[in-house]
Amino acid sequence: MMVLKYVLVAIACIMIGVVVTMTIIIPTKTEEVEKAEELTVEEKMFEDIDSNLELSDREIARHFINLYNIQHPHIVYAQFLLESGYASSRIFREYNNLFGMKAPRVRLTTSIHNRGDKWAKFTSIESAVIDYMIWQRLFANELSETDYFAFLGRVYAEDPQYINKLKVLIRRHGYKFN
C-alpha cells in the first residue's frame, strides 16, 4: 500500500513537472510592479517589514506555493519566511532550501543532496516547493488547519515556539493566497 502511494506521488510529480515546464512563466519585473500597485492598504503597511526580502524571492515562492496547490499556503509561506530568515539564510541562498528541509533518507524527493548531507539541496525554488508538496501529501494530506499546526509542532519543528512564531508571522503580515 505504501509503495503504491509513493508510485502515485512520483507519477503525479512527473506529470506536474511536464505541465509546469510547458506553462510556467515567472513574473517579470513589469508584472511585479503592477502587482505591487494593486496591494491592499494592509499589504502596503507590511511592505517595509519585508524590505530585507527580495521581491523576486517572495513572488516566486508565492507563485509556486499557489501553482502547486500547497495545502495551508499561508502557513507554508510563513514557514518559508521563518525557515529561510526572510530569504537570507545560507541554506536558502546556497541550497534553494526554502523550508529548512533536512535531506530525506527514504522518501521520494526532488532534492539533489549528497549522501551524508544534513540539509536538502534543490536546483530551484520551484524544486523546493515541489519537494514540500510531496512531503505534505505523504505525511500531512488533507489535515484541518488546527491539525496541520499540531502536526508541524510534533514532527517538523525543533523550536518549542515554532508554531507560535508561525502564527505571529501570519497575523503580522496578513498573507492572502488565491
- The top-level CATH class is Mainly Alpha
Q: Order of SSEs, N→C?
A: HHHHHHHHH
| Main β sheet profile | none
User: Could you name the CATH topology?
Assistant: Lysozyme
End-to-end C-alpha gap: 34 Å
Average pLDDT reading: 78
Question: Structural class, from helix and strand content?
Answer: mainly alpha
- What percentage of amino acids are in beta strands? under 5%
How many domain modules? 1
Question: How many DSSP E strands?
Answer: 0
Q: What is the 3D shape?
A: globular
The number of helices is: 9
**CATH architectural type:** Orthogonal Bundle
What integer value in Å does the Rg equal?
Answer: 16 Å
List the helices and strands and how they pair.
Elements: H1 2-23, H2 29-37, H3 41-45, H4 55-67, H5 73-83, H6 90-95, H7 125-139, H8 145-156, H9 162-173
Helix pairs in contact: 1-7, 4-5, 4-7, 5-9
How would you portray this structure in words?
The chain is 59% helix and 0% strand. The chain is mostly helical and 178 residues long. It has one domain: Lysozyme, CATH 1.10.530. The radius of gyration is 16 Å and the shape is globular.
